[in-house]
User: Fold this.
Amino acid sequence: MLINLLKSNKLKQMKNHCSLFLLLLALMPFTGNAADKKKQNITLQTSILKENLEKVAQRGYMFGHQDDTNYGLNWSYINGRSDIKDVCGDYPAVIGFDLGHLELNASKNLDGVPFDKIRTEAVRQYLRGGAVTLSWHLNNPLTGKGAWDVTDSMVVKSILPGGNKYHLFQGWLRKVAAFINSIKTSDGVKVPIIFRPWHENTGSWFWWGEKLCTVSEYKALWAMTVKTLRIYGVDNVLYAFSPGGGINEAQYMERYPGDDLIDIMGVDIYQYSTNDVYIKDVKNAFDFISMQAQKHHKIVAFTETGYQGIPYSEWWTKVLMPAIDKYPISYVLVWRNAWDKKDHYFAPFAGEKSASDFIKFYQSPKSFFVRDLKLYEKNNK
Ligand code: BMA
Assistant:
């Protein structure tokens, strides 16, 4: 046991040296177009993150976990705690948080997490050198019910200019802007955020889904969102597009908002049946997403995934890794280990049956955790 532990520490140290070295090598001058950068007007830290996401994707993928430092199945709000850290000794390189109910002026999000806690944890993740992503499962502005209320197909139309919920929704965007602008270090540095609104739009389970709005309404929603946040001074965001899986290239691109609005091309794919079906779905998606991302000069990410309850104890090395190995994916994020929903977990925790396989995944030279990276350092040489 001790030998195994020493061996695994050694392996991890070797991996750390190797990956840091590779990353330093990879930190070459920014290759993006200067006019683009100016147009987007993003902070220095955000543009460094953007170029490093691109570099990381050439070497491997960062591991991400939703709500990682907020709670696990049997704990919540213990400073410094993380299920991933309990299992492998390091934090995920990416942590996701959700803004749902911020629009209602609530003090806690839809999963009961105080927004103050989200802000604190986002800053901590930045100070560790990791990345932060925000999703937004916002209420339905027309019916007043949740994001999953699809009883009315006029919702998107109602919040666009001329719609009767336009002003209400502008207020919601203002709250999101104020929150994102408020995620700052004590020195006043705004934390770069990967913002991922209007996700899984190719399904029809959210009020912004495929059958609930036209192509032009969906695109107008994106354009209005990004432009409004920019007007309110949000300059610390990279925007991620993340349709659902099970679609073809044409369906993916049909609602692509446009190169000036998107930084990251992602996808959300969960495992619901066999390992083979999942691997095939993931490969089908990334075959065309990686090509499109190259064509449009975008970063690739696996924005949400997982197998609820992790029924297969070798899922990390036998399913996830073979599914994503050959693609230039900057990060792969698994969903939350819910404290409020039975068996709704997607990441290992101490004693969980896939934990030892997850350590193998962690030891792979291709997986990056927070200590493996310097996401906010630029090599000026
Ligand atoms: C879903 C589930 C819900 C949760 C929502 C937002 O996938 O985890 O329980 O409310 O995400 O985090």
Observations:
- Residues 1-10, 20-38 have pLDDT under 50 and may be disordered.
- The chain has one domain: 44-372.
- The domain at 44-372 is CATH 3.20.20.80 (TIM Barrel).
